[in-house]
Specification:
This protein has about 475 residues and is an alpha/beta fold. It is built from 15 helices and 14 strands. It has one domain: Glycosidases (TIM Barrel), CATH 3.20.20.80. The chain binds 2-acetamido-2-deoxy-beta-D-glucopyranose (7 copies). Keywords: Glycoprotein, GPI-anchor, Lipoprotein, Membrane, Signal, Transferase.
């Protein structure tokens, strides 16, 4: 029988200690904050769903975070773009995501994960709420939590996306959305090493928007630890269209209304999707506004979307022969991100963290058709046992050491020239990615790109050369 020798074990331990890890982000009042530095964290993000939802094919062994070669390329392009967060919609909890997630972690990019998918028994069905709120469904959401709970760059889970999308679904589904949120948060409290935020992603339907937010963000019976309360509220917003459209300003886009609606929010609010494409190419002139005076209320947003699909929202085109090409939207978005003052975005707004969540009451709900009952459905039979025992044989992801940094697939610039030497730059533990090569650090200083690249390599290199030395010594024995 092969025995793992002590020197090799020592190297494995050494390497494990040196796996780079971002600092956790948590919710504090109406802000996301870094759990170590208490700096504010604002989402500068993109939606990441290679192939779109049509491309989600669990039986195939492929999901957006299953191929490290593709993630390495995308992480390099996103690092240059300046994003610090990706949103991933459809994931197979049984696949191995370690390579991809470790790459995104290594470049300081966090993940917002949807626990649902378009497959049967993997989301709430607004037409069959009671039967779709099942043990099988919740088991799937818990399996997604298991798969991502150990990664330090898991920023949060969406318990539901656009389930309330009409006046009709606003009448029936709210108690179920709170029930699913409660079950997932109970599962996390019992089975996760840290409290990972769980929230909602809302459709932009003006008749129900304010009520959706008010319904999900209050405390039932004034219980400040109410697990059914959403930890954050995302809005999929496409109301600001490009410069030649009449909606390309603060008032006509309705951004001013959002700021007054959410002015007293007790939980973080952000755009869980944005980037209207009615005027193309997109120039993203809403970016300086979203990260300008709106930051007193909003915590940033995620541009829809990274991969080009037939709906034409992409930043980058991908071809089946493995090559890809940046689109002009990528360059335009990068230019806008590069104007942001990341240091200012990180500074805390202490009043936002002080707002107490209101107690739930039918008086919080303003339209007559919207559900105003805070009596939630009981969890289906078997769920509390599942929460107590944990999902059996669950696939639990963990960080692995990232050694390859060079992108091997060809990427072409907007003008069609091959981009040479495309690579990721591994960041030290205390940094996350940001625009313009800027990163956030606990020291408050913003180091140059060169420094952070070097630091990442030193850590990877230490592990590598220690391994080499020990293996050599071992061979010589
Ligand atoms: C990952 O994607 C690359 C490029 O398309 C492909 O060549 C490779 O076979 C894929 N790897 C796996 C494990 O599927
Ligand atoms: C729960 O999910 C796990 C992981 O996907 C799966 O192996 C198991 O069969 C599921 N159990 C039930 C009861 O659905
Ligand atoms: C914050 O950090 C503390 C100390 O390391 C840790 O115990 C706690 O679990 C973290 N909380 C969150 C929400 O990440
Ligand atoms: C915020 O900025 C917008 C657009 O730049 C402007 O119209 C609005 O008056 C500003 N609001 C405040 C409160 O400063
Ligand atoms: C926020 O709450 C304060 C105090 O209750 C109130 O005076 C103010 O009008 C509220 N603002 C908004 C935008 O709702
Ligand atoms: C890959 O496919 C794209 C789109 O069809 C094409 O423009 C490009 O030249 C191809 N690249 C190679 C290396 O074949
Ligand atoms: C709220 O939703 C629940 C569950 O769908 C339903 O039973 C109840 O009738 C609704 N209540 C109101 C006041 O709309």
């Amino acid at each position: 029988m092969y025995r793992l020798s002590n020197p090799i074990l020592a190297v494995l331990l050494l390497c494990a200690t040196f796996a780079l890890a971002v600092q956790n982000v948590k919710v504090q009042g109406a802000d996301f904050v870094n759990n170590v530095t208490s700096d504010r964290f604002q989402i500068i993000g993109v939606a990441y769903q290679p192939g779109g939802s049509d491309g989600f094919n669990p039986g195939s062994g492929i999901d957006p975070l299953s191929n490290g070669t593709l993630c390495l390329r995308d992480a390099a392009l996103m690092q240059q773009l300046g994003v610090n967060t990706i949103r991933i919609y459809n994931l197979d909890p049984d696949l191995n995501h370690d390579d991809c997630v470790s790459i995104f972690n290594g470049v300081g990019i966090y993940m917002l994960i949807d626990v649902n998918s378009p497959l049967p028994d993997q989301s709430l069905d607004p037409g069959n709420l009671a039967s779709s709120y099942s043990l099988t469904y919740l088991n799937h959401t818990f399996a997604v939590v298991e798969a991502f709970k150990n990664y330090p760059n898991t920023l949060g889970f969406f318990s539901a996306n656009e389930v309330m999308d009409t006046v009709g679904t606003g009448a029936t589904s709210p108690p179920y959305i709170r029930a699913v949120t409660r079950d997932i948060k109970d599962y996390i409290a019992k089975n996760s090493p840290r409290q990972i935020p769980v929230g909602y992603s809302a459709a932009d339907v003006s008749q129900i928007l304010t009520d959706s937010w008010a319904y999900l963000s209050c405390d039932i019976n004034g219980n400040s630890n109410d697990p059914s309360r959403s930890d954050f509220f995302g809005l999929n917003s496409y109301s600001w269209c490009g410069p030649t459209s009449p909606t390309a300003n603060y008032e006509a886009s309705g951004y001013n209304t959002l700021i007054s609606t959410f002015g007293n929010t007790s939980i973080p609010v952000f755009f869980s999707e944005y980037g209207c494409n009615k005027v193309e190419p997109r120039v993203f002139d809403e970016v300086p506004v979203l990260y300008g005076n709106m930051t007193s209320v909003m915590s940033g947003g995620l541009v829809y979307e990274y991969y080009e699909e037939s709906n034409d929202y992409g930043l980058v085109s991908f071809y089946s022969n493995g090559t890809s090409q940046l689109l002009v939207d990528y360059d335009n978005l990068q230019k806008q991100f590069n104007t942001l003052n990341v240091k200012a975005l990180e500074s805390m707004d202490s009043s936002a963290t002080a707002i107490k969540s209101p107690s739930c009451s039918s008086s919080l709900i303003s339209s007559s058709g919207f559900n105003n009952s805070f009596t939630l459905p009981a969890a289906p039979s078997g769920v509390s046992q599942l929460i107590d025992s944990g999902v059996k044989n669950a696939n639990q992801g963990k960080l692995v050491t990232v050694t390859d940094t060079a992108v091997t697939l060809p990427v072409y610039s907007v003008s069609g020239s091959l981009i040479n030497n495309l690579a990721i730059k591994l960041l030290p533990n205390d940094e996350s990615n940001g625009p313009n090569g800027a990163t956030t650090t606990s020291s408050g200083a913003s180091p140059s790109t060169t420094k952070k690249g070097a630091a990442g390599k030193i850590q990877a290199g230490l592990c590598g050369s220690a391994a080499m030395a020990i293996v050599l010594a071992f061979l010589l024995l």
